[in-house]
Design a protein that fits this description.
The complex is a heterodimer of chains A (621) and B (113). Chain A has 621 residues and is of the alpha+beta class. Chain A contains 10 helices and 35 strands. Chain A has 3 domains: 132 residues, Sandwich (Immunoglobulin-like); 102 residues, no CATH class; 239 residues, Methylamine Dehydrogenase, Chain H (7 Propeller), CATH 2.130.10. The chains are: A alpha+beta (621), B mainly alpha (113).
Chain lengths: 621, 113
Amino acid sequence: MQGFKQSPPFTGMLWKMLLTPRVSPAFAGLALLAGISFSQITNAGSIAGQVLDANGNALSGIQVIYTREPGAKGASVVTVFSAVDGSYSFPETFAERINNDSNIIARGLGYQQIDRLVDTDRRSAQLTFVMQSVTNQVDVAPASAWLGRIEDRQEKADFVMNCIDCHQVPASEVRDYARAIDDVHAAQPELARRQSWDSIVKYMNFLSAWEFSRGGRAEGAEIDAQAVYAVENSAEVIDVLTTYFNDRMDHIEGYDRGAPLIATSDTAIWEYEVPEPNAIREAVMLGDPAMLLAADVNANRIVGIDVRTGRQQNFEVPTDYLIAPHSLHRSSNGELWVTPLFNDRVAKLNPQSGEWQTWRLKTSTGGGVGIHDLSFSSEHELLSDAEGRVWFSDIGNRAVGFFDPVNGETRIWNTPVAESRANDSALYGTASVYGLVMTSDRKEVWYSQLGNGVFGGFNIDTEEFIGPFVLPDPNTGPRRITISGDDIMYLALYGTGQIAEFDIKKREMIAIHDLPDIGAAPYSVTWDSVRQVVWVATANADVIYRFDPATRAFGVLPLPREQSFLRMIDIDPASGVLVSSYANIVENVNGPRMALIIEPGDGAYPVRFSMENASAPTPAE
Amino acid sequence: MINVLYRYTSYLFFLYVFIISFPAYGQDQAETLINDEMCYACHQLDSASIGPSWQAIAARHAERRDQVMQVLAGKIIRGGGGNWGVVPMVPNQRVSDEQALLMMQWILEQAPR
């Protein structure tokens, strides 16, 4: 994706505007009149073929990735997987002609593409890929693979919690820096490494302080390097970096995804590039025709991307304050709820009409709130209580609360102290409240506290807290959570690389499961009510995991690039396609800025997703 | 003879003024770039922090300023270390060649007064 990184945003958008077909039939008609060769326009591109190893044997589970020209109609990149017999085919016929210059590659862990044979005729392109197996997996192994160097799980969890909020560690640029340190050939290498990583930690604090004080910072004001996402425990972090990232980091072998691939010949991934500058971090799909709606946390906008044409439009939130759209929630009636980067504004968008409704929340005592997530159901849709009130996690006040969308009434309750965590001075008895779900009877909300490994519930009728429940390691990092139709709650355990399974009705932990890669940094989990599985969004492993509670088995779906930092997964209720985005936030982080749709290819949902007729929930007129 | 000399001198004078006005034209742009690209995370004008100060860099390269300008501009983009201590500079891949040159032109003018 090097080309995308370099192109200036404005000319990129201009290029896209010029080339994106507006109304194809009219254009074709005009072209005929203009005498342009009709065959060039209608010469459709369908792509199929096979993936073989160097001895001609079929290779399965290899990604075939087609990166289209800027301005192409539809997705920027489309990916499929080779089947057991090595064959693959792309789900749609592309408007452009496929030829030898088309950017189509094959990619797989432990493999390197050594040949590509292209055979095209007017209708289709047959591409055969030949892969050589390689010992050095550095090109495809994810960042999490390198965390295998840290054997102590507590040390690893601590490091993940300290460092992996904005970007993967060690992403390729981190490894490049390890190489730059080695290239200095310092007389005292270990001292040089320590000083260098120390400088990097300072640099990170500066960048994040600058980034997260946007909009609230006066011109030329001093930047508080300890604000928001400053690296805590710098000394420990520098120790880990110096100890484990102590070579050129250009060779890694023996990494395994740790679970079977769930990709089939019907699996497809459509990725849509959002031109920079942006800090998109979440996406859901709504509207007819279907649109990916992506939250840009650096701005006041939701970016809407038509999934069939790729055309993008901005939905500007009508507030005078930098709302910084952070979390998105779909409601069952096709509306989009937007919560901010922890301030007191909430917004709701009707994607069909483009109309907004906004609230500024104040509690009865006049205090503000820091909203993170809103209450949702096992269908992953916004759920209000019996009185129509929407509940939220208040990350600022360490509280849970509600607001009434009708009259704006807002109340919060501070979470109780977990005594066993309160004793350790480095930790907190109560910490920032992060994820939130609502039970099926709408009488309880349950929350997670990322910073101290605690979670609990709240009874809406009695206004009493349930718990708190303390997870084993203070750096467990319960982040986003989900709930099944039977009120089984799943928690993504970010620091320790696990998911927890908790029976809300019995108030009992069922089990805590290690992910296939415990360095994966699972940011969120989403219950799939049709498939009856949990989808796990990882920040650090470039994969999505599928967990089946019935078999307790994991499956893995690899994404087509490094730096696929996921923070959420939504599921289209009709077709069951997964919706997400790469959230390398902070403008100075390199890495893809894309929203994506994934067809798992398991035929589990009644309606098959079709790019031509793509539609998603829409508000009634 | 005197008239020719006079005309020539005044011509040179205006040419000189014309030329030295160019750096001033790009100066605001360079300063904005240096601010926006986070250079102040590691560099200050007149004191060493994580990296050397602008004044120290300008002083070191004062004599061969023109010869090294292009090379040092590339350094902004590539990063790397070994010249001012053991800590490598981070790369700045988003900066274009033209932007890097502008920034370096400004930096190399920051010799201590």
